[in-house]
UniProtKB/TrEMBL annotation:
Name of the protein this chain belongs to: UDP-glucose 4-epimerase
Domain of life where this protein originates: Bacteria
InterPro entries from the UniProt entry: Epimerase_deHydtase, KR_dom, NAD(P)-bd_dom_sf, UDP_G4E
Gene: galE
Domain Ketoreductase: residue ranges: 1-320
Amino acid sequence: MTWLITGGAGYIGAHVARAMAQAGEAAVVLDDLSSGIAGRLPEGVPLVHGSVGDREALDRVLAEHRVTGVVHLAAAKQVAESVEQPLRYYRENVHGLTVLLEAVVAAGVPRFLFSSSAAVYGVPELDPIPESAPCVPINPYGETKLAGEWLVRAAGRAYGLRTACLRYFNVAGAERPELADTGVFNIVPMFFDRITRGEEPRIFGDDYPTPDGTCIRDYIHVSDLADAHLTVARRLAERGEPGDLTVNIGRGAGVSVRELAALVGEVTGVPVRPVVEPRRPGDAARAVASVDLIAAELGWSAKRGVREMVESAWAGWLLRHPEAARQDG
Ligand SMILES: NC(=O)c1ccc[n+]([C@@H]2O[C@H](COP(=O)([O-])OP(=O)(O)OC[C@H]3O[C@@H](n4cnc5c(N)ncnc54)[C@H](O)[C@@H]3O)[C@@H](O)[C@H]2O)c1
C-alpha cells in the first residue's frame, strides 16, 4: 500500500503524513506549495512538487510510486476569499478534483479519501448535526466541498472505488510547534494575532440563543483529525465491497467563543477582554457534530481537549512570533 497525500505539506496534510509515516504506512506527497511548507514533511515521505490540476504530473506520481490509495487534502480553503473569487475556488477545488479522479480511475487506484468540511451543512438546523442533515452550503467554499463529495461518491459508484468523505469541524492545535497552522483564518490563530498586536480578541455577536450569547462550535485537535485519517485509510485498505463512508470528524462537544477567548487568556497569560462586534451573516448559533456514526462504524473518537489545542497552537505561534512571548505570562 502506498498513499498519495495531496496537499500533504499543508497544516492538516503534514499531520496526516506524519501519522501515516509513524504508523508504518508508505506515503508520497503531491503539493504545489502554494500555502504548504516542504520542511513540514516527516522523514521518509517524499515530496513531489506539482498540482492536482496537472494530469501529467498525476499520472507520473501514481505510476512511479505505485500508489494504491489517495488522501486528497489539497484545496483552497478561505471562506471570504471564496466569495470574492468563486471561479478560482471552483477551478481549484472542483476542477482539480475532477482531474485527480480521472487520473485515479485511469491508474486503477481503488481507494479515495476526501477532505470535506462542516461548511457543507451551511446554517445547520439540527443539534448535534448528523451526517444525514440537509447540506445547504452558504458560500462558494462550502459549495465546492459539497460538489467534491458528489464527485467522489459518483466516481466511486461508477468505477467501483472505496471512498470516504470526512467532514471536519473546527480544526485547531498542532502535534509539534513547527507543524502549527501559519494562517490566521481560524479562530485560535486569529485570537493570537490580536493579542500579539496588543488588541483585544473580537467576538462577532453576543446575542445568540446560547448560554453566554456567543456562538458555539465543535473544535477538533489536528492530531485527532490525523488519527481519524489513518483509521479511515486502514478501513478503506481492508478487503471489502466498493462503497462510501461520509462521516463528521469532531468531538461532539460545544465550546462558546467566549469560553475559548477565556481559555486563550489563561494559556497565554494575557488578560483578554474581548470586544463584541456585530454578528456576521451566516454564522449559526451552534454547530456541533454528531459523532455517533464514526464511533459506530470505526470505533473512533477524539481524545484531546480544547486546552491541549490552545496550548499546542500557542507553542507553534510563539515559534513564529517570538515577539508575542513578551506578553506571555
Ligand atoms: N483548516 C481547517 O479548519 C479545515 C476545516 C475543514 C476542512 N479543511 C480542508 O482540509 C484541507 C487541508 O486544509 P489545511 O487547513 O491543511 O490548508 P493548507 O492551506 O494548510 O493546506 C492545503 C495544502 O494544499 C496545497 N495545495 C493547494 N492547492 C493545490 C493544488 N492545486 N495542487 C497541489 N497542492 C495544492 C497547499 O500548498 C497546501 O500545502 C483542505 O481541503 C480544506 O478545505 C480544513
